[in-house]
# Entry
Amino acid sequence: MNLRKFSSIRSKIILSIVISISILSFMIYVVSNNLLLKSYEEIEKGQVAQDLQRVSDTLDNMVDQLGVKLIDWAWWDDTYQFMDDRNEDYISSNLGNSSIANLEINTMVFMDNDQNIIFKKLINIGSQKELPFENINDHIKDNTKFSVPSDGSSTPRGIIVLPEGPMLISTSVILTSDGGGAPRGLILFGRFLHEDLISEIARLTHLNVNIYRYDELSLPKDVFQAKKILTESKESNYIVPYSKTNIHGYTILRDVYGNPALIVKIDHLREIYNQGTKTLVSFMILASLTVLVFGILIIVLFESFFLYRFSSLSKDVRDIGETKDFKKRVTEGKRDEIGEFARSINQMLTALSGTMDKEEKFNKEILSSKQKLNERLEEIERMNKLMIDRELKMIELKKQLAQLDNDK
# Structure
């Protein structure tokens, strides 16, 4: 194997390691993005759902506060007496506009056991001016829920929707101060869910809250979409990211009849998601550095324990091939795969060297035999030449003898 081929193989191996590390880094990113960031998104949605519940709980708490105020009026001997004799002193002493405004309610309604309205008043809390009562009057008359329960069940509390806007209400039967006596009707306290009350909800919950009527025709596009999804899916909440910095949550609140009445929207900063993004970035930087160091370590160790030894082995084999000195041996090193390979090469060199020694000895023997054969052939040739010379002399001698005999 020449140096150029080895360098090519070395480059391909290192490139394979780099590609493997890159794939590992990408897989870490994909897994982290799908697990870590998704988990933060779920936590974020859970937080928004809790905040929506906080808004609902705050509204319930406001209704409870109405009930606390109401019970002092409903379970009061003076009220109990008023429902019996309709005395004007009770009205003039207790039911003036300022008295109702001090209770921070918009309306106060007294109904007898037959759902007839005995007293009613609707005011503006800020100006303490009286407002038209017709819509509340019609609403009460059209719904049997506002009758005194004969079976001891609870009276209506929650949300009703009027043309003027949604209203929080609480009702209670009228009893004596000790909670006894036969019921003499029903009292209703109500407060409009106007901007001042919504601002109060936002202050108490520390949330950006908007509340819309479910039956409103000119809903914002996102609220209309949320209304459609919540109505069709029957889910309690609809939570959707609005941008990288904000997420919106929507829920539907129902009125005292169980019908959709309000849509609550909160605009929530994506602090959890952004923290998750920062955590993911930090994790990816740390993971990338770890993978990079790990990759460099692999390459260094690969160079030290494999490529360097393999390069040295290749050089030893190349030197033996160039010098044709098969008595040399490669460095075996450790007893591992490369060491076993080096030992195999040495065994092959030993066998090759032995074979070449035998071949050399055989060649020497052949050469010696050739020399002896040549010497023998030369001796035979010399003897043949002597015999020929002798034969020629004999012939010549015979010719001379024959000539002598002829001369006689």
User: Anything to note?
Assistant: The mean pLDDT is 83. The longest strand covers residues 260-269.
